[in-house]
Automatic annotation (TrEMBL):
Residues 1-339 form the Amino acid transporter transmembrane domain. The keyword Membrane applies. It is found in: Membrane. Keywords: Amino-acid transport, Membrane, Transmembrane, Transmembrane helix, Transport. The chain crosses the membrane at residues 12-33, 53-70, 82-102, 122-141, 162-182, 202-228, 256-276, 282-304, 311-335. This is Amino acid transporter transmembrane domain. GO terms for cellular component: membrane. The lineage of its organism: Eukaryota, Viridiplantae, Streptophyta, Embryophyta, Tracheophyta. The keyword Acetylation does not apply. Pfam families: Aa_trans (PF01490). Its main location: membrane.
Length: 351
């Protein structure tokens, strides 16, 4: 769309790189979160185990290394279906466990005050906005898919409604119940709050912790492979020989090397910088805010050319300007938080 509406350079040098950065950033974030879940499973079995977080990130990267060899989106259709089921399962499990813990007599003390100095609070607001943009950014996927066949408007609305229904059933339930149960101590990975820090015992049965983390690991591996696929398609359009068959040696070897290289790089970055929330906020600021909130209204104004005196022109312009400013501020906030955490933790930190 950027290529046809704004010109080839906008598509190639602005929108394309942002899309690829977002896709690769999601792979890195998922590799990190997958490693954290594997570590949680390990600690259930070996409470005094000495393995570090980066080792589990590498193990998760090995799983991605295998799944990344699926040749196309079509070959991922069963993985996508399983991913949706797992998403609903672990979200329901996390919400139910938070409610259960919150009602227990020995429940952790709830504190809903906003901590930190004024500067930290202000930057925290913009950080949170970027994370929310990352969460809602997935809504653009079914909306785009709905444009494949007519009637476009009706199907786009259905796609969005379906997406937000899933968001409410998953993100919202976990966020609300988790914050209610743990207050400002709620972590980015809510399962880590299920461990009582004082007694070093879980508030829920250990088999439950193991199971929900297993659900999460499997779902994250599916999501990471889906977001890796657009990068694979672009690279393979350059390195593959279209005159040869898909599974010929000429095409299989370059595909294996390139896909493996990108998974290894993502795994190394995830192991080096284990700050999941920071990665999410940077993704939202740099990628999802411009792609979801700025470019669509710009495209509308350039394509349909509404009168400069019309309401639709000015509301689109205001949205583009406000979210552009928000994206810049949120990016500064995200980078600031990464620097703070990098000073707090060393590379390959066991957090």
């Amino acid at each position: 769309m950027a290529h046809h509406i704004l010109g080839p350079k906008w598509g190639r040098y602005y929108v394309g790189p942002i899309q690829m950065a977002v896709c690769y950033g999601v792979v890195i974030a998922n590799a990190l979160l997958g490693g954290q879940c594997l570590k949680a499973m390990y600690l259930v079995v070996q409470p005094n185990g000495e393995m570090k977080l980066f080792e589990f990130v590498i193990i998760f990267g090995c799983l991605l290394l295998v799944l990344a060899q699926f040749p196309s989106f079509h070959s991922l259709r069963y993985i996508n279906s399983l991913s949706l089921l797992l998403c609903l399962l672990y979200s329901a499990s996390a919400a139910a466990a938070s409610i259960y813990i919150g009602k227990e007599p020995n429940a952790p003390e709830k504190d809903y005050t906003i901590v930190g100095d004024p500067e930290t609070r202000v930057f925290g607001i913009f950080n949170a906005m970027a994370i929310i943009a990352t969460t809602y950014g997935n809504g653009i996927i079914p909306e785009i898919q709905a444009t494949i066949s007519a009637p476009v408007k009706g199907k786009m609305m259905k796609g969005l409604c379906m997406c937000y229904l899933v968001v409410i059933m998953t993100f919202f339930t976990v966020a609300i119940t988790g914050y209610w149960a743990f207050g400002n101590k709620a972590n980015g990975l809510i399962f880590t709050n299920f461990l009582n820090a004082e007694t070093n015992h879980y508030f829920v049965p250990t088999w439950f912790i193991f199971l929900v983390n297993l659900f999460t690991v499997l779902q994250l591996s599916a999501v990471a492979v889906v977001y890796l696929q657009p990068i694979n398609d672009i690279l393979e359009s350059v390195i593959s020989d279209p005159t040869k068959k898909e599974f010929s040696i000429r095409n299989v070897i370059p595909r294996l090397v390139v896909r493996s290289l990108f998974v290894v790089m993502a795994t190394i970055v995830a192991a080096m910088l284990p700050f999941f929330g920071d990665v999410n906020s940077l993704l939202g600021a740099f990628g999802f805010i411009p792609l979801d909130f700025v470019l669509p209204v710009v495209f509308f104004n350039f394509t349909f050319k509404p009168s400069k005196k019309s309401f639709i022109f000015w509301i689109n312009t205001v949205i583009a300007v406000v979210f552009s400013c928000l994206g810049v501020i949120a990016m500064v906030a995200a980078v600031r938080q990464i620097i703070i955490d990098a000073n707090t933790y060393k590379l390959f930190a066991d957090v």
